[in-house]
Design brief:
The complex is a heterodimer of chains A (285) and B (257). With 285 residues, chain A is an alpha/beta fold. Chain A contains 9 helices and 12 strands. The radius of gyration of chain A is 19 Å and the shape is globular. Chain B has helices spanning 2-33, 39-79, 85-123, 126-132, 137-176, 180-190, 193-219, 224-254. The longest helix of chain B has 41 residues, at 39-79. In chain B, 89% of the residues lie in helices and 0% in strands. Classes of the chains: A alpha/beta (285), B mainly alpha (257). Chains A and B meet through helix 2, strand 8 and helix 3 of A and helix 4 of B.
Chain lengths: 285, 257
């Protein structure tokens, strides 16, 4: 798991109490105070494919136990950024650091060690369709642990119960609805009890009650198990309800960063149009 | 100038294909040699690929042998006695017909299924999910299929050898009243075991080609139904072309005159 638990302020960040805001959209420590522990950091991350810049000079860090959200319109690069964080895509320039270790140039074998402390919930669940629900959740346990079948079964039951899918172990993914598959995908990502969780649109396809269950789960994981979460979402209400900090992407660049409240008060036209959801504005030209 | 550009691009594409498939093959071999290929997955692939190809392989080889036997019997009766029908047919089946036709059938049936399955997993991010769960797709998907195909193809070929001879015998008996006893006696007296064995060695190479190429295209499948269709078609076509090209060089190496 990650570094040992430290004392936290109301937002769950390992910041000193006398934190000073530099501006409405940024947060920074006062000079002389130590930087918070970064679990995930993007350093001048850029990704260009077929001459098109998908990500441009992305810079952010995510502290331990933080719920960090990446927002933006469809096609702004959010999912691509998440895929860089777990090493599914290599950056064109810059790097991603996980617990201080740069991962952009690690081999697949070396990335395996990093990925074992991370879990990822995919936007369309990405369940293994030839395996049952139970076997999907047990997959990582069978490959990376020496737990007995009974122990694995107990963990699988616990994880499925966490996402409200108890008793569905023998069902196949094709028999589930989109929202149910999403929940099983989250349970599978949680099987190895990762200290860093990545969520790609965790509430899309879910009814409001189940979306609330997932939101509570993300917060509970932070509070009880010190899990650091990075959420990609275009659902502003969902993000503002649970995120400690958020960034907004537009055409591959970060155009705003800060706590939800500071983003809500931002006078940036792009940010305000996105938050308000209006059709007319600078985002839509 | 555009010809040079086109030829250059094709050459680079070919080099890239050779490099990528070689890397995939050796990566899968590392898992197989170290015993980490996954026994359950390998047995599943052997059952799936072997059983599913059995009927079509049998039909293909039986009728091909019957046609071959028809021509051989006709020539034998015209120029010499029918006593060499079994030997000629046996040589043709053991050296070429059974190994090559069985491999082509397996490439079309099992190879296409491999490409389609892995391609569909690629498109639906299941391969990415494997990597995110710190499981190497080469270990979980490619190595079992490579091992299974390399083991199953020789077994299918032995079956094809026998059913091919039976089909050829049927035509020989019908056309020239060649009895089964003399037919098989001539084969066992005149065809040494190494002729059959070297035909089986060919199938090991063919099996490696089928699994590696099929998995390669599956892992590089483009999104959408059209993308999946294209990668399956490409995989089968490339497999068959490589089987025939490789067969020529293997024949020169294994059956020198």
């Amino acid at each position: 798991m990650g570094p040992p638990r430290r004392s936290y302020n109301c937002c769950g960040q390992r910041w000193p109490a006398q934190r000073e805001r530099v501006g409405p959209d940024t947060m920074s420590v006062r000079a002389g105070e130590s930087d918070p522990v970064s679990r995930v950091e993007a350093r001048d991350l850029s990704y260009v494919i077929d001459g098109r810049a998908i990500l441009r000079d992305i810079r952010f860090h995510v502290a331990e136990r933080e719920v960090f959200a990446v927002m933006g319109m469809s096609g702004s690069g959010k999912t691509t950024l998440l895929r860089h964080i777990i090493g599914l895509v290599r950056p064109t320039s810059g790097d991603v650091l996980i617990d201080g270790q740069a991962i952009g140039h690690l081999s697949e074998r070396e990335l395996g060690g990093v990925r074992r402390k991370m879990g990822m919930s995919f936007q369309y669940s990405a369940l293994f369709d030839s395996l049952s629900v139970g076997d999907n959740v047990a997959f990582a346990l069978r490959h990376h642990t020496r737990l007995s079948d009974d122990e694995i079964h107990a963990v699988v039951s616990e994880k499925l119960a966490t996402v409200g899918m108890s008793g569905r172990e023998s069902m196949m993914p094709a028999d589930l609805s989109g929202g149910e598959r999403k929940r099983v995908g989250i349970a599978r990502a949680l099987a190895l009890e990762p200290s860093i969780m990545l969520y790609d649109e965790p509430s899309s396809g879910l009814d409001p009650i189940m979306a609330g269950v997932i939101d509570e789960l993300i917060v509970r994981l932070r509070d009880e198990l010190d899990v650091t979460s990075i959420i990609v979402s275009h659902d502003v209400m969902h993000v503002f309800g649970i995120a400690d900090r958020a960034v907004m992407l537009h055409e591959g660049s970060i155009i705003a960063e800060g706590a939800p409240e500071s983003l809500r008060r931002s006078d940036d036209g792009f940010v305000q149009q996105f938050i308000s959801g209006s059709a007319a504005g600078p985002l839509t030209g | 100038m555009w010809i040079i550009g086109t030829v250059g691009r094709q050459a680079l594409g070919l080099l890239s294909f050779v490099g990528q498939t070689s890397r995939l093959f050796f990566a899968a071999c590392r898992y197989i040699v170290s015993g980490r290929a996954g026994l359950r997955e390998t047995l599943h692939e052997m059952a799936d690929g072997g059983v599913s190809s059995l009927l079509i392989a049998t039909v293909t080889i039986v009728f091909s042998s019957m046609v071959m036997s028809y021509y051989i019997v006709g020539q034998s009766l015209r120029y010499f006695q029918g006593g060499f029908v079994g030997v000629l047919l046996g040589e043709a089946i053991f050296r070429e017909l059974a190994p090559v036709l069985t491999a082509v059938v397996v490439a079309a049936r099992a190879g296409s299924a491999m490409t389609a399955e892995i391609g569909s997993m690629t498109i639906t991010e299941q391969v990415d999910a494997l990597r995110a769960l710190a499981v190497d797709p080469v270990k979980h998907l490619v190595a079992p299929r490579l091992l299974a195909t390399v083991l199953v193809l020789p077994i299918l070929t032995i079956f094809s050898d026998y059913t091919g001879l039976v089909g050829g015998l049927a035509v020989a008996w019908h056309r020239a009243h060649i009895d089964p006893q003399s037919f098989f006696a001539a084969i066992s007296a005149n065809i040494p075991f190494w002729v059959l064995a070297r035909g089986l060695i060919k199938t090991v190479v063919f099996g490696a080609i089928i699994a590696t190429v099929s998995c390669h295209y599956g892992l590089r499948c483009e999104r959408g139904a059209a993308g999946l269709g294209r990668c399956v078609t490409k995989a089968v076509v490339v497999c068959i072309i490589l089987i025939y090209i490789t067969n020529f060089f293997l024949t020169l190496a294994l059956y020198p005159f």
